[in-house]
Amino acid sequence: MVISHPPSVITAAVFDTKPYDRQALQRASVNRDIEWHFLEFRLTEDTASAARNARAVCVFVNDQLDRSCLEVLVKQGVELVTLRCTGFNNVDVDAAKELKLTVTRVPVYSPHAVAEHAVALLLTLNRKIHRAFNRVRELNFSLNGLEGFDLHSKTAGIVGTGKIGQVTGQILRGFGMRVLAYDLFPNHDWAEQIGAEYAETVSTLLRNSDVISLHTPLTPETKYTIRAETIGLMKPGSILINVSRGALVDTKALIKALKSGRLAGVGLDVYEEEEGIFFEDLSGGVLHDDELARLLTFPNVLITSHQAFLTREALNEIACTTVANISALSGKKPFVDGSVVT
Ligand code: NAD
Fold it and tell me: Of 27, 236, 273, 319, which residue is most buried, by most CB within 10 angstroms?
């Protein structure tokens, strides 16, 4: 049976959806003329045909919007791709422009959610809460090996002082840390306001920081910001936190450094090869990614599955921006300010 909708109803195919996405989008679209097609699988060239009849396609961080995928979407009449995230490194932007496909993202959604998760990873790692939690449950009340260090008076290196980096720096200043920052476009007002300093180069930041937190987008320039050469600059015993994008860190080099005992801890919410692994329940199967498997063996590595965004507030803001951008296809209202990528 073919279901026909009044022309004002906009059909949106939503890829890679989980129950929390569905609930948030449905809540945000009450009284809006949007017909949702929720799909659990990711968008690739091979799955793009599932968007037939949709004017809008809604995707997340691990959907693959390369040229061939975008071509299939456009051939089927898709006019808009809305990303439910900030980063758009998974979209071939040049191809989208050529194909006259509008791409929007969520420019701001609770930077606090992501920054607070970065700090949660740092505190857990440093004070070894993950190990203490397991020990106590087995009635092992020994403290041996659980020593951390005071964050107070130590230096936090914030690479990328956009929305999330700024909040992270501000929280860490609250612990009495010195904040050393690096950004292509330094924000001196923010630095003055919270009492942070900018380093001239990433190398200076890495040499002088006890904790390093990455907050740049993934671009050709930022890929492998942390690699063998730059790990060599880091203070022995420092902690690295990455809640930004996996490929900011060269995993092979990281594993080597961890094996040598150079780093006190590594907290990752993102992983270079996370696609197809993160967000999924693979607990009954075999993990085929040997590097991830190796990372999971280190007691001083803490991995979460790209969950830094997962707060009520962030989900709500993501859903509201997405719904507003899909509704903008009706031509009655503009796209959300700052959300248009192409
Ligand atoms: P933003 O655009 O506000 O800030 C990014 C900052 O990086 C900017 O100040 C920019 O000048 C700087 N930058 C860009 N290229 C640089 C370079 N080569 N060298 C130095 N600085 C550079 O972005 P944001 O909202 O703070 O988000 C940052 C990143 O966090 C996103 O791109 C995304 O990858 C990631 N993120 C992750 C999650 C998660 O759930 N784990 C959620 C949201 C965002």
Answer: 319
